[in-house]
Give the backbone structure.
Amino acid sequence: MEGSDVEIELPARPESVALAREAVSAEADRLGMAPRCLDDLRTVVTEAFTNAVRYAYEEDVEGRVAIAVSAGEDVLCLTIRDFGVGIFPRPERELPSLHMGLPIIGALSEEFHLTSRRGRGTELTVCMPMGEAS
Amino acid sequence: MEGSDVEIELPARPESVALAREAVSAEADRLGMAPRCLDDLRTVVTEAFTNAVRYAYEEDVEGRVAIAVSAGEDVLCLTIRDFGVGIFPRPERELPSLHMGLPIIGALSEEFHLTSRRGRGTELTVCMPMGEAS
Amino acid sequence: MAGFSLEQRDLDPGYCEISVEGELDLAVAGELDEAIAGVDAGYVGLVVGLAACEFIDSTGIAVILRARRRFVAEGRRLVVCCPADQVERILAVTGLSRDGLVYESLDDALAALRPDADG
Amino acid sequence: MAGFSLEQRDLDPGYCEISVEGELDLAVAGELDEAIAGVDAGYVGLVVGLAACEFIDSTGIAVILRARRRFVAEGRRLVVCCPADQVERILAVTGLSRDGLVYESLDDALAALRPDADG
Ligand SMILES: Nc1ncnc2c1ncn2[C@@H]1O[C@H](COP(=O)(O)OP(=O)(O)O)[C@@H](O)[C@H]1O
Ligand SMILES: Nc1ncnc2c1ncn2[C@@H]1O[C@H](COP(=O)(O)OP(=O)(O)O)[C@@H](O)[C@H]1O
């Protein structure tokens, strides 16, 4: 997460998802991201952060989720990182899942990089275009 | 995929999955991987290769899937790469899916790295222990 | 930050609408789940109205799809109407727009709920 | 490379077993799907026997789970028995061993299929 313009860390709770979404999209808006791209960015932050909240930590652990935003000329990269179990088979608790979190992120981004370390957490970096053209 | 000991490329077809599994596990066996770890490796190759066969290419495209194996002292790294659509929402065709491909890979490996590029394909590198201890 | 609220109103006899206003994500998806579960069994058709829904995530969509499966199992129907902007886009990206779930107007949605309509 | 074959045999009246031999993956999962779909409706309980199954992937497991949902919808039952080695491990890793789906012996599996058993 070097060279990032914005870094925040939030508790891994459902209420944090909207905060993450607002913080990232406010920064992207300030950097001049086009409105349609902002919508996609809001979707991507939400899906990634939600995965960390739902799956990274055991139910009795209050974990944290770190976000970093770093912008180039045409592209904005977003890193969402948790310090949980790594990508792992997780039971659905009360709420159902669409099983499309990563596929949605893939469809809305130029590229993404996911690293999972067993017992040590998951890090996802997603690169999104700043404007309609790309 | 530099420095890899074994590289193969197979057509993205269901019949290739067993070939991929055999090729990788024969090489790992030759390199001295412990039997229990070999079982996990066979599962991991199968899940990763199956994703490429099921999801990477449109139905009317016959794509290819590349595999590379590279071994260190305690660890074997396996890269499975396709040149398809990237991680993307894909309809289930005839066969159902468990939605646990990546989570199984995460549970059986030390770590994995996934890169998805929209319209250009998916690359997954998985690192597995050679012996029971790790 | 946009708030979140749900409102239920009657449509034609036997049919009702739950309108979603604001941003539907993990923090509030349970509220929608309960609201749909609480719709009286006398209603044979439900429209989930998304015209004022400014944002939806995959958890919100999953809640709607599960509720729809439960409705179908009971011989009732559930459709979604009037998505705009981000909501329309994510439904398209996930392939759900082509699924007989989503209608552009309340009239189309109501027509799809009638017993003589398909699906 | 291990081959793949399926064999169906009668157990007690109304019950039968499909035994899987060899490696069950994407290339052959459709065969198991069809074999299960082809089990006569007169059988109220089916055991999928995995003692001679040397390898299973998530597609094979998904086929079994979907078949089980279909059985349940018809008021019939389906269980799995006798996984070993890789099969046992992947069922454990995915959390399915704790699901009332998997039994260690054919006797246990048959007992679970009886109408007076749970689940
Ligand atoms: N941050 C995470 N920590 C642990 N497991 C995760 C994480 N993100 C995803 N997973 C696992 O990967 C699976 C697939 O992820 P994804 O498709 O993005 O989510 P979902 O199934 O909720 O749509 C999840 O069901 C979960 O088992
Ligand atoms: N190689 C690939 N190319 C394109 N899409 C993929 C690929 N691998 C996985 N996906 C997408 O990611 C989703 C989740 O992957 P995973 O959990 O491993 O598979 P599955 O759902 O079959 O268990 C798949 O349903 C598919 O939409």
